[in-house]
UniProtKB/TrEMBL annotation:
Function: Involved in the gluconeogenesis. Catalyzes stereospecifically the conversion of dihydroxyacetone phosphate (DHAP) to D-glyceraldehyde-3-phosphate (G3P).
Reaction catalysis annotation: D-glyceraldehyde 3-phosphate = dihydroxyacetone phosphate
Record has Isomerase as a keyword: yes
Family matches, as NCBIfam families: tim (TIGR00419)
Name of the protein this chain belongs to: Triosephosphate isomerase
Location relative to the cell: Cytoplasm
Organism of derivation: Ahniella affigens
Binding partners and assembly: Homodimer.
Predominant subcellular localization, coarse grouping: cytoplasm
Stated family: Belongs to the triosephosphate isomerase family.
Pathway: Carbohydrate degradation; glycolysis; D-glyceraldehyde 3-phosphate from glycerone phosphate: step 1/1; Carbohydrate biosynthesis; gluconeogenesis; Carbohydrate metabolism; erythritol degradation
Length: 249
């Protein structure tokens, strides 16, 4: 039985005052339940959010990391730094990094390896663009993005990771993948991993991300291969985020 995870990706939103209000209200309203909850604030707020979430069941994540442990890499942030501030997980390969910052599959694989090397749980994001979907290339793209990591890190590395299927066309657009479209992509990913290791495939959590809201979370999370969500915009709205957590039973 896979335990669901709902992770809020705040992207480049927040301020000291807004974060304090958001986390305080989320903690106050957190529904009972078995699902894991995490928030991923911008780097500069990790220490603040670590303090606010201390002792709660809300885990702390970062949105990206450097593939290097330290060095002359201006503007980059290394895994050990995230760990020191209390992060336990980190997103790698988010589409806003792949498409907005030109990260390729092999760089994403290096970041995945670095995350694990520094004791962080990598949440590997993958997903196709609208053009790729319309060209019938969804599975081809997912396979390429997944294989880049399994070939670099080995399939066994997925025992200590989470996947997040995020169709690029559904991110921040209000256009959600239907529960059936999400399920099909998740099932494809799981079956591809099962060809190499059935047990790892069975225990691996695959989150869905892309315009998840209170109103659609329950239907998406009800699909057998969907193990929670990576939530962008709705994670910044207290009642939306709490309802999504409640839907992840
Ligand atoms: O990381 C989260 C995803 O990019 C989804 O963002 P969204 O919920 O705002 O569409």
């Amino acid at each position: 039985m896979r335990r669901k995870l709902v992770a809020g990706n705040w992207k480049m939103f927040g301020s000291l005052a807004r974060n304090q209000a958001l986390v305080t209200d989320v903690l106050a309203g957190l529904p009972q339940g078995n699902c894991e909850v995490a928030v991923c604030p911008p780097y500069v707020y990790l220490a603040q959010v670590a303090q606010l979430t201390a002792g709660s069941r809300v885990q702390l994540g970062a949105q990206d990391l450097s593939p290097k442990a330290e060095g002359a890499y201006t503007g980059d942030v290394a895994g050990p730094m995230l760990k020191e501030l209390g992060a336990t997980l980190v997103l790698v390969g988010h589409s806003e990094r792949r498409h907005g910052h030109g990260e390729n599959d092999s760089q994403v694989a290096e970041k995945f390896v670095a995350a694990q090397a520094h004791g962080l749980l990598p949440v590997l994001c993958l997903g196709e663009t609208l053009a790729e979907r319309e060209a019938g290339e969804t599975e081809l793209v997912l396979a390429r993005q997944l294989d880049a990591v399994t070939q670099r890190a080995g399939v066994a590395a997925l025992a200590n990771a989470v996947l997040a299927y995020e169709p690029v066309w559904a991110i921040g657009t209000g256009k959600t993948a239907s529960p059936e479209q999400a399920e099909a992509a998740h099932a494809f990913l799981r079956s591809r991993i099962a060809k190499q290791d059935a047990m790892i495939a069975d225990s691996l959590r695959i989150l869905y991300g892309g315009s998840v809201k209170a109103g659609n979370a329950e239907a998406i999370f009800a699909k057998p291969n969907v193990d929670g969500g990576l939530i962008g915009g709705a994670s910044l709205v207290v009642q939306e985020f709490l309802s999504i957590i409640a839907a992840a039973r």
